[in-house]
Amino acid sequence: MTLEGVIAAVLILSVAYFLFQSTMIISPVSDEVVYVQMRQYGQDALTILNNESGAEDTLQYVLKRINSTYVPDKLLSSLEKLLPDYTDFNLQVYYVNLTTNKIEVYNITNRIPTSTTVTASTYLVIRNGAFVDDSPFKLNSSGIEGPNNNVPILLEVRLTLWRV
Amino acid sequence: MEGLKDTRGQIIITMALMISILLAGLSYVYSQNLLAGTETSITQLNFPKNEIRDLRRIAIEELTDYASEPSSFLDRAKELDRQITTLYALHGAYASIDVFDIKKSVVGGQETITSFMIRIVFSNTEVEYEETVLVQLT
Question: How many domains does chain A have?
Answer without folding.
Answer: 1
